[in-house]
Design a protein that fits this description.
The structure is a homotrimer of 262-residue chains. With 262 residues, chain A is of the alpha/beta class. The first copy, chain A, has helices spanning 2-12, 25-35, 48-54, 67-83, 98-111, 120-127, 146-156, 191-205, 209-229, 234-247, 250-256; strands spanning 15-19, 38-41, 57-61, 87-90, 115-119, 159-163, 167-171, 174-178, 259-260. Chain A has a single domain (2-260), classed as Ribokinase (UDP-N-acetylmuramoyl-L-alanine:D-glutamate ligase), CATH 3.40.1190. Chain A contains eleven helices and nine strands. In chain A, strands 2-1-3-4-5-6-7-8-9 form a nine-stranded mixed beta sheet, sandwiched between helices.
């Protein structure tokens, strides 16, 4: 499934519309290009609907949000709903500030994402706004929030993808666990945001949001593992990650994949 | 000509004022530094006129535009006209949304750029707003829009530089064709935007916009070819591109250049 | 001191709140991660106070400023003052435009930074707004502005860190000089901004702003030197810089450090 969908991304080059944060725009665009998708970044309220109208998936990321961007996110999200294309929401830093928590919840209600992808702290904060998170890093493990993820999935009617040492993807009571990846990935900014963008690419070619989210996390983890083996640190990791994402073969995936439940 | 102008850029370090998109700000600044120019990014309506007043070329790129930025682009562009410094316009995604097409056309009229540099879809859309483009990638070849490029050049009284497998640079009825480059360059975000910034650097040191545009595209293509030979994928390509742009010698250029018409 | 503080950064992972420019957000976030700190970028006026409230240092950089960002900078700065956490101000391009000079001076007055880190032209312009600077690069040496740096330090009651071939850090009449570094560092965009972010990380773990500023500049210079030795140009330099910052050992620092006055 992962391999077949990756082949589809490479051959179809689906356009992925990203409304994302300033920190990662370049790296997520490059990751989408490396996987074979076609990224577009556009945030002006004047054009987001039209841009979403051209796309096969919408990825919304609140990493460096501000009021005009939130407006655009909602407008784009509603258009994506109308067109029934998948929407990935990355609630970066949800729980760290009231504005982020409020915005993430507002986006949940108004655009009803297909997939929510975040770290454990963000997912917990999204379910229960009383949690305190430290900036944009996670202070919980994904397993610690397993029940919250299931609850959020049921309440919001969407797939919840929680990244961590073990990634957990839940769709109601269905759960997948992925044990690929490497701690070095947390030493590069925006790897979570990249995971969300790649999730959008898989969702563009697979109508099962659950499978798309699982494939994305597995591929991220596998590519990350190989990249770490070839890297002296987080600088060289970044370029190796893109090189490997661009050229990864079926055999690399088959040998390394550690996925349960899909 | 290319080599002499590159030497001038390296020795004079012309200040290039960029009002560009969030995705590529870092990479275009680094490309301008690598070639020997001095980049500045500034977009506040309060300061763009003054910043353009210090620069030897202005590069405007609508990749992630919004209303306040458009205002600043116009203000900066008018100051550049007044000072008679070259203006490069990169109409990123023109044709993809009405806002982009409208903005590109408005910029054309209000600031009258010296050089328009875009891909085939963007150039076609700029001439005839009825074309449909897919995001920011090109769905036409440069040769398919040759006549439109000539027409646009004459109508707008400027040089039109169309990137593609073969780059086409037109100035009225004069045309140059450059066959350097490599498909890998399309797998890295912002290579077109980098081409526009580099065009600005050449225009800063050569009063012929036609020659400047041709030199920039040839150098981009040559550096890209060498970088691909040393790279395992789009990640390592990016760093090799900067390394080679920084240190390229006359002999590399002479051996590889495939330029007709200049 | 440098090594002990670096160990503290690595073990405590202090959260550093950055309100910085678009060009360098990604690279400074990655530098902060590589050194072991935890970066967060947030600029919305709705959330900056709360985010600063979670942080152990605030870094303000006016590289691509605009009016709403200035408001947020002031709000965050006041909260940082209230909480008595260190504030690093990087007056990028101060002197190049009236808006930048005015904003830098306004920030000085309203938030009273703990450390000002800039190049010689910026420091001079901050003291005396009549100076003309060329874009964001420096046209003076740090030694040429030594007296201005002392004067600024006394007038503003803060540490002044001037980068250059020799970095000068002054705190009233106390001065440190650091001769590490390499000219290649000026060929990569945002190395100054990275220095400011790293200064924030050291200030988060050392209550002496003077020592923090000196450690940061020495580490930047040493890592830069090693990176240049392993690099073919400014592209590979960037990745080597991060790799080395991530893994640098005490012996590398001891062997190379050229610091006087601390």
């Amino acid at each position: 499934m992962l391999w077949e969908d990756l082949q589809r991304i490479r051959s179809e080059a689906p356009l992925i519309h990203n409304i994302t944060n300033y920190v990662v725009m370049n790296t997520t665009a490059n990751a989408l290009l490396a996987i074979g998708a076609s990224p577009v970044m556009a945030h002006a309220v004047e054009e987001v609907e039209e841009m979403t109208g051209l796309a096969r998936a919408l990825v919304i990321n609140i990493g460096t949000l501000s009021a005009p961007w939130v407006k655009a996110m909602i407008k784009a999200g509603k258009e994506a709903r109308r067109r029934k294309i998948p929407i990935v929401l990355d609630p970066v830093g949800c729980g760290a500030t009231k504005f982020r928590t409020y915005t993430a919840q507002k986006l949940m209600q108004e655009i009803r994402p297909t997939i929510i992808r975040g770290n454990a702290s963000e997912i917990r904060a999204l379910l229960c706004s009383s949690s305190g998170t430290k900036g944009v890093d996670s202070s919980h493990t994904s397993d610690e929030v397993f029940e919250e993820a299931c609850e959020l999935s049921k309440a919001a009617g969407c797939v919840v993808s929680v990244s961590g040492a073990v990634d957990i993807i839940v769709d109601g009571d269905t759960v997948a666990r992925i044990s690929n990846g490497h701690p070095m990935m947390a030493k590069v900014t925006g790897m979570g945001c990249t995971a969300s963008a790649i999730t959008g690419a898989f969702a563009a070619v697979n109508s099962s949001s659950f499978k798309a989210a699982a494939s994305a996390m597995a591929l991220m983890g596998i590519v990350g593992e190989i990249a770490v083996e070839r890297s002296a640190g987080p600088g060289s990791f970044q370029l190796n990650f893109l090189d490997i994402l661009f050229s990864i073969q079926k055999s690399d995936i088959d040998q390394r994949i550690k996925m349960q439940g899909v």
